[in-house]
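ENTRY TYPE: paired fold submission
RECORD: A
CONTENT: sequence, then structure tokens
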Amino acid sequence: MTYCNSLLVPVAWFNFRVWEPLIGKAPATGIDLPPWWLNALFELPLYAESLWLRAGLNLPVGQSLLLVAEKMS
């Protein structure tokens, strides 16, 4: 069990806790797609995290929790 989407935690925190209140925007769900170029840019830290996790290392904090389980027979 580990966290993922860790490197984007500061981006999410800034968006939801600083930027949206600053511009007076109502809280959003965060499920709207960003522009393609920004989406492509956000893929880079996710790719780096995938390499980290594939190496068997854990992340201490993140926006998602990843659990892999195996059914015992």
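RECORD: B
CONTENT: sequence, then structure tokens
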Amino acid sequence: MPTTRADLFPQAIRRTLAQRAGADPDARAVAGATIHTWQQMVAQLEPVIGARGVDAILRRALHLTSSSRPWLAFTSAQGDTAALLVHLEKHLADCAPDVAAEAGSALLVTFVKLLTALVGDSLTERLLAPVWVSALPASEQETKS
């Protein structure tokens, strides 16, 4: 079965979170990496789909992700997006590092899958490419070019 662009998003997300969290991260570092990556995604997406569009997809992704991780559940009655991000960061930081990494990755992967269903692989890839860390260190990329 051939690999599609959408199949590469989970790898890019895991690689990005791992690099941003550091070599031997604690849960707080993983939570920070997840929120930082999220903020970069928002910066790329808001000009195209608007803040409300990004927020709607995030809330849906969080709802879907929290079905297998109930501790991530957040209701709209609990507040706005800023409150949601504080909730998310706090709950990720309170976990074991591997649990936080898996949950943060799962949330971002779910978000990207929902976005892809709406706008397609190609546009999702173009919009979010600046967010992901490269597979190769910059020095290796330069020699490959």
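NOTES ON RECORD B: The chain is about 75% helix and 0% strand. The two ends are 28 Å apart (CA to CA).
STATUS: closed
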